[in-house]
Specification:
About 45% of the residues lie in helices and about 15% in strands. Helix 1 packs across helix 7.
Length: about 250
C-alpha cells in the first residue's frame, strides 16, 4: 500500500500544493484544516476518497490533534509521514509588520505556539505508531528568513529558527527507531494566502538577488517535501533543506 501522509494546514496555500503533489505521486493524504472545511472537501473530491480524507483540528490543541490522528489511522490503517505545515494567523506584509519596539511577547507566543507547540502536538501524538513499526518520517516547514531576514518578521522567524533545533533533537533521539526528521525551508513563496500582501518590490528584490533569478514557488517546496516523504530519502535525517533559488547557501 502507498504511504499515508498527514499534512497540517493543507486546505489552501502551500499545504494544498503539497497534498496535491503527494497524491499525484501515489501517496494517500490526510488534509488537515481548522476553519476551511469547504476548501478541504474540494481537495478530497479532486483526489478521491480512497486516497484522501479531510479532518478538522486546531493543531495547537492537543485533544483535537489526538482525535485527528486517531481518525486518520482508523481510516487508512496507519500514518507513515507527517508534514508540519500549518501557519497561525501570519501575513508577510512588510508595510504592516510591527517594528521590534512595538511587538509584545504575546505576538511571539502566538507564533511559537503555531510553529513549535503545533509540531510538538502532532509528533508526540503520532510517534507511538512510528516507534512500534520502527519507521516514520517527520517533515516540518521552515523558512530561509532565519539566515537572511530580508524583512525582519521577528516573531515568525524566531519560531521557525527554533523549529530547526527542535527537529534535530527529535532526529537524534528517534533515529534509533527508524524515524527521520527534517526541515524544508522555503524562500518567500509566490504566491500563497500569507504572501498575497507582499509588495511587488519585495518579490522583485528577492528574484534579482537569487542565482536562479526567480522567486520560490509553492511547487518548488512541495517537490522537496515529496522527495523526503519517499523511500529515496531513507538515509536522510536531521537536515534543513533550503529551497530558495540559491538566495542563501549553506
Amino acid at each position: 500500500m502507498s504511504k499515508v501522509v498527514l499534512v497540517t494546514g493543507s486546505s489552501q496555500g502551500l499545504g494544498a500544493t503539497i497534498v496535491r503533489t503527494l497524491a499525484n505521486q501515489g501517496f494517500r493524504v490526510v488534509v488537515n484544516y481548522n476553519k476551511s472545511k469547504e476548501a478541504a472537501d474540494k481537495i478530497v473530491s479532486e483526489i478521491g476518497k480512497e486516497h484522501a480524507i479531510a479532518i478538522q483540528a486546531d493543531v495547537t490543541n492537543r485533544t483535537e490533534v489526538d482525535r485527528m490522528v486517531e481518525e486518520a489511522t482508523d481510516y487508512f490503517g496507519q500514518i507513515d509521514v507527517v508534514v508540519n505545515n500549518a501557519l497561525i494567523d501570519f501575513k508577510f506584509d512588510p508595510i504592516k509588520q510591527k517594528p521590534f519596539a512595538e511587538l509584545s511577547w504575546e505576538d511571539y507566543q502566538r507564533q511559537l505556539d503555531g510553529t513549535l507547540k503545533a509540531a510538538f502536538n502532532v509528533i508526540q501524538s503520532v510517534v507511538p505508531q512510528f516507534m512500534e513499526r520502527q519507521n516514520g518520517s517527520i517533515i516540518s516547514i521552515g523558512t530561509n528568513l532565519f539566515q537572511n531576514p530580508v524583512v525582519p518578521y521577528h516573531e515568525y522567524t524566531t519560531a521557525k529558527a527554533g523549529l530547526i533545533g527542535f527537529t534535530r533533537n527529535i532526529a537524534a533521539e528517534l533515529g534509533a527507531y527508524g524515524i527521520k526528521a527534517n526541515v524544508v525551508s522555503g524562500g518567500l513563496l509566490k504566491t500563497t494566502n500569507a504572501s498575497a500582501v507582499t509588495t511587488p518590490e519585495v518579490f522583485d528584490l528577492i528574484a534579482n538577488s537569487t542565482p536562479l533569478k526567480k522567486v520560490t514557488t509553492p511547487q518548488d517546496v512541495a517537490n522537496m517535501v515529496a522527495y523526503l516523504a519517499s523511500e529515496h530519502a531513507s538515509g536522510i535525517t536531521g537536515q534543513n533543506f533550503t529551497v530558495d533559488g540559491g538566495l542563501t547557501m549553506n
